[in-house]
Design goal:
The structure is a single chain. This protein is of the alpha+beta class. It is built from 17 helices and 19 strands. It has an 8-stranded antiparallel β-sheet, with helices on both faces. A 5-stranded parallel β-sheet has the order 5-4-3-6-7. The chain starts with a strand and ends with a helix.
Length: about 475
């Protein structure tokens, strides 16, 4: 592989082409070329790089996010991607003091903020941008610049409808940084992506999996799996952060009557709003604490190969392994190299299928990482997320090689819930990272929920990974007085 800069790696040309060749038939089988016709007028190209960019964080394409504390404020994560001359939209005002922090302390420029009126769901930002004075503003900006780029969290149908609406109103090109929906859902569907993994990397990169479409067959498969594996699981195909997963100890299932197991299956399907006929994955649930992810950027086909921008360890909690944060990988070089190579092969295949933009892959590592180990693919996140967003922000702010850091959800103790963001950063003083001097250790984003529920996202920089962790465990408490 060839190093192309800070954390950016590409495959040799011959290997890149081999990965693309592996899915050329799949592109035809899935009818992707015909499916993309509707979206071609708004496909993003690097020729559009000088147009102003509208950043928006519309998360409505992911099920069950309403259970995440403070989720309606997550739309302000779009701010950390925006630069001078850009726009970003949200249906609520930024937290008092946060824009000043972004502009004056972090030096992230002064993009234009668009406060949108929600149509119904306050998280449906793309729909809200496509109407009223917000649409007028976007059309005027596009017309004045000769074009506009929409850069979403996830390029769902509503985003493409927004691009078409602005283009019609302005009479100029408007493109979307992201895969068209037929490719977006191929990437985000665990079942379809497993077929890509099988064709490109082989069956050895997958845990034993069976697809089923009704409660009776799901029950039959999970009991069969329980006879072969210590732990088994069910996965909905399009959920994020493990919210569509459930894990069972096999011995517990095998001790129950079949009717009780089917009742557990039906309860899971009801909780995850399953519709008749939808695929559910029955999987061998391999027990490991090692769940790395790889972060990639895929240019449009013909504009260069996919770039691997980082290998990360995910910080997970609970038996379902719910994501709470990440750090640059501390795994042995041989493990990181295999993760990188496999990821770039998968990315080349997705690029061949029409994927563009931000993408990440999740894996588990089994065995002895210092000796005999194996890697299994678990899912693709065809969007921005909880690892790529802080990675991008660190790369914007820190000069030189990427430092050791930890990025995670952070909850204040109950005694400090109610503190304002202004009070919060004042208490931290010179521990706030200063991009001009390189001093300090903490960077904050996604701060909307801080006053109401004491939650925000932090990045703790350190001279070493241990130093970064000490910042979270010790320094924060010392500065905030808990």
């Amino acid at each position: 592989m060839n190093d192309t800069g800070i954390g950016a790696v590409t495959l040799p040309k011959q290997e890149n082409e081999r990965a693309r060749q592996a899915v050329r038939d799949l592109r035809e089988e899935l009818g992707i070329d015909a499916a993309l016709q509707t979206y071609r007028p708004h496909l993003w190209s690097t020729l559009h790089k000088d147009f102003p960019v509208l950043h928006l964080e519309d998360v409505t394409g992911i099920p069950f996010l309403q259970d995440i504390a403070g989720i309606t404020q997550y739309q302000h994560r779009a701010r950390v991607r925006a630069s001078q001359g850009d726009l970003f939209a949200a249906s609520s005002e930024p937290v008092i003091g946060y824009e000043e922090y972004c502009q004056q302390h972090l030096g992230l420029g002064a993009p234009e903020f668009l406060r949108v009126e929600p149509v119904a769901n306050p998280m449906a930002i793309a729909q809200a941008c496509a109407r009223g004075t917000t649409l007028d503003t976007l059309a005027a900006r596009a017309r004045a610049a000769g074009g506009l780029v929409v850069h979403p969290y996830m390029s769902i149908d509503d985003v493409w409808t927004l691009a078409k609406t602005i283009a019609t109103a302005a009479g100029v090109p408007v493109s979307v940084v992201g895969p068209p929906p037929p490719v977006l859902w191929l990437a985000n569907d665990k079942s379809l992506l497993s077929e890509v993994v099988n064709r490109v990397l082989g069956q050895d990169w997958l845990v034993e999996t069976q697809r089923a479409t009704n409660p009776e067959s799901i029950t039959a498969h999970i009991l069969a799996f329980a006879a072969r594996h210590p732990w088994v699981g069910l996965k909905r195909t399009r959920c994020a952060s493990a919210m569509g997963n459930i894990v069972f100890e096999s011995a517990t299932l095998l001790a129950r009557p079949r009717s009780e197991v089917e009742a557990l299956v039906r309860a899971f399907l009801h909780r995850t709003e399953w519709c008749d006929g939808e695929e559910v994955l029955v999987v061998e649930w391999a027990i490991t604490d090692l769940s790395p992810s790889t972060q990639l950027w895929l240019p449009p086909l013909g504009d260069g190969p996919p770039l691997l921008e980082g290998v990360y360890e995910q910080l997970l909690t609970g038996p379902e392994k719910i994501f709470v944060g990440s750090r640059p990988s501390l795994l042995p070089a041989a493990v990181n190299a295999q993760l990188a190579h496999g990821s770039l092969e998968l990315a080349a295949a997705l690029q061949q299928l029409g994927y563009v933009g931000r993408c990440s892959f999740d894996f588990i590592v089994l065995g002895d990482v210092h000796g005999d180990f194996s890697i299994r693919f678990t899912e693709c996140n065809g969007r921005w997320g909880g690892t790529s967003t802080p990675m991008h922000l660190v790369d914007r702010l820190v000069k030189g090689p990427r430092p050791a850091y930890i990025a995670k959800d952070f909850f204040l103790p109950q005694s400090h819930v109610g503190i304002s963001f202004v009070e919060f950063i004042k208490a931290l003083g010179d521990e706030l990272y200063d991009p001009k001097t390189g001093q300090g250790r903490f960077i904050f984003y996604n701060v909307g929920p801080v006053q109401e529920i004491g939650k925000l996202d932090l990045i703790a920089l350190g001279k070493t990974p241990q130093d970064a962790q000490e910042g979270i465990d010790v320094v924060l408490g010392q500065r905030l007085g808990y």
